[in-house]
Amino acid sequence: MNSSRVVTIITFVGIACNVAYFAVRGFAVQAHAGQVAAAEGGSGGAKKSAAELEKEKAMQHPYPNDFGPEELDVSGYPKNHQEGYKMLKARCAQCHSSARPLNSRFVEPDVAKDKKQAAVADLKKSQPELFKDPSIWQVEANIWERYVKRMMAKPGCKIDKKEGKAIWEFLVYDGKRKIGANAGKWKAHREKLINELKSKKPERYKELHEQKDL
Ligand code: HEC
To answer: What residue ranges do the domains of the chain occupy?
Structure first.
């Protein structure tokens, strides 16, 4: 085989490879197109779905909550709240771990909607320590309702209204674990989580501290 034929063959193989490469690449781009992020205005060649971007955001900003357990023994909870818990485990672990809601400082009084405000006022009198350190307890009349709705509004979140309601009601009921006779134990738990964030992610701890979030 003379050298010019070798060159011709090599050139051919080279062209064939390029054609194959662009065909495969084109296909991959097309396959992706369905889920290309609208979040970045769909421009700039973004290949991540809005849901993936939201998950990245959630992971890049850890909370002390994330260092706590991802599970809870709810065998003693009423049946409907056991269902709400199951729903939380399935739905609220899409972007961050279920530890984030399960170890949250948020407390919403477990009474009828129109009595929540009064219940917060009562707690202020009967358990003033719950209002002294918002990194341990954040007690508000509608805080879980607000947060579940906020999560549901995030791009890529697949929680429907009925599921959201069950999760919200579970989280409200679960507040019992943080107040009353359980307050001391809860405080120690939260302090441990905050210390863990402080030693493992000092930058994030500083950030939350500066935002007066811890
Ligand atoms: C689509 C992604 C996504 C889903 C699904 C999601 N979250 Fe989040 N979550 C986030 C992001 C991002 C943050 C960071 C703070 C923010 O953006 O609000 C966050 C933060 C939180 C926090 C920390 C707030 C704080 O200040 O302590 C809690 C609690 C929380 N989520 C609860 C939930 C619950 C309950 C559900 C299920 C109903 C849920 N999340 C589902 C994305 C998600």
So the answer is: 3-48, 57-210
